Amino acid sequence: MEKIKVKICQGTTCFVMGGEVIKSIHDTLVEKYADKIEIVPVRCLEVCHDADSFSQAPYVYVNDEVVSAATVDKVISVIESKLKNE
Ligand code: FES
After folding, report:
1. From atom 3 of ligand 1, which residue's Cα is the shortest distance away?
2. What average pLDDT score do residues 51-79 get?
3. Whose CA is nearest to atom 1 of ligand 1?
4. Which of 72, 67, 74 is nearest to 29 (CA)?
5. Which atom of ligand 1 is nearest to the CA of 12?
6. Residue 1 confidence (pLDDT) above 90
7. Secondary structure in 3-state letters for 2-50
8. What is the pTM of this model?
9. What is the rounded average pLDDT for all residues in the chain?
């Protein structure tokens, strides 16, 4: 099975809006899904550039799906949904 690609934004906006969340997403995902996902740190996913989207940071991509206002639970929910569908 191909691993799910999880792109965790580490750009300035996402860091400011949820630096600790991003770190905990990374740590939790590595622990829970090491054999099922590939974590790709990225600088900016280019979805944070207006006032509305700024307030929805931090962002994480799970394959091609954008998770806004990302939390550990939201990202895990999207990953588990994709795992069920494979
Ligand atoms: S800094 Fe995260 S999407 Fe731009």
Report:
1. 45
2. 93
3. 11
4. 72
5. 1
6. no
7. CCEEEEEECCHHHHHHHHHHHHHHHHHHHHHHCCCEEEEEECCCCCCCC
8. 0.89
9. 91
| Residue range 2-18: mean pLDDT, rounded | 93
Give every strand in the sheet of 60-62, ordered side by side. Answer: 37-42, 4-9, 60-62, 65-67
Q: For a substitution probing ligand 1, which of 9, 61, 75 has the most ligand atoms within 8 Å of its CB?
A: 9
Q: For atom 4 of ligand 1, which residue has the closest CA?
A: 44
The fold of the 4-84 domain, in CATH, is: Glutaredoxin (3.40.30)
* pLDDT on residue 56: 94
